[in-house]
Amino acid sequence: MSKQSVLILCTGNSARSQMAEGLLRHMAGDRFEVASAGTKPSVVRPEAIQAMQEIGINLDGHRSKSVDEFVGKSIDYVITVCDNAKESCPVFPAGASRMDWPFQDPPAPHEGTEEERLAVFRMVLDQMKARFVSELESGVFAPVLSGRNES
């Protein structure tokens, strides 16, 4: 059986969507093919990489991708993690379930000290973890398939 596909969208594909991609892949990668993209891709923020490293998830090799790379591909779930992406998200095939989970926008690279920025990235990451745990346990997002061999 093939894995379900999840596309996580944000504006720049630089922070929230990158962290959510790494987190979902880590938490439930055996169930999903996970990717992230942006409506206006830029570069992966070093604070996102560091916050993820602190919990043992490596984002090395991640790159900021355009949502255009995924148009026309079969996608089971589209999750927007910011309101801007929600408003400008392209239409995906009818079979795709769409969820909007806006998380706080981390500060820009020039705002505050490095430690202040990292604190916000860590807080957003904690919120994402809580949301993924809740959604995965409830079965609302990607329900566990019945009839599995439990032995």
How many helical elements? 4
Query: Strand share of the residues?
Result: 5-15%
Distance linking N and C termini: 18 Å
**Low-confidence spans:** 144-151
Number of strands: 4
Strand order, largest beta sheet: 2-1-3-4
Give the overall shape.
Answer: globular
Instruction: Estimate the mean pLDDT confidence.
Output: 85
Percent of residues in helices comes to 25-40%
Radius of gyration: 15 Å
SSE arrangement, N to C: EHEHEHEH
Tell me about the largest β-sheet. 4 strands, parallel
Structural class by sheet pairing and helices: alpha/beta
Question: How would you explain this protein's 3D organization?
Answer:
The protein is an alpha/beta fold and 151 residues long. The protein contains four helices and four strands, in the order E-H-E-H-E-H-E-H. The chain has helices at residues 16-28, 46-54, 83-88, 114-138, and strands at 4-10, 32-38, 77-80, 97-100. It has a four-stranded parallel β-sheet. Helix 3 (83-88) links the parallel strand 3 and strand 4 (97-100). Helix 1 packs across helix 4 (114-138) and helix 2 packs across helix 4 (114-138). The two termini are 18 Å apart.
